[in-house]
Amino acid sequence: xxxxxxxxxxxxxxxxxxxxxxxxxxxxxxxxxxxxxxxxxxxxxxxxxxxxxxxxxxxxxxxxxxxxxxxxxxxxxxxxxxxxxxxxxxxxxxxxxxxxxxxxxxxxxxxxxxxxxxxxxxxxxxx
Length: 127
Fold this sequence. Notes:
The chain is mostly helical. It is built from five helices and no strands. The longest helix is centred in the N-terminal third of the chain and has 32 residues.
């Protein structure tokens, strides 16, 4: 169990992360408005959401131990990476995007899950 001081630090860190990511997103929106380049914008949004998921993964994993949890990496992280790869390839025009994929990319479910599963899979440790 974490103490209340640790919880307050995690919440403050969460707000700082959200503020910084929103500042980056605003800068990217301005860049996109000037250059009309949408490809790099998707990468930046993807990386910000994965970083947010990694932060949540660090905050939610109770005991950080070095130990790979293969079921988490194989059953959660790997499908998320495949879906993210499919989505990014569809923006490049290599494959067709379905409306369901556009919905998931727009709402960042897969990116956050991917980041949290990566941390939980690599540092979840053995019980």
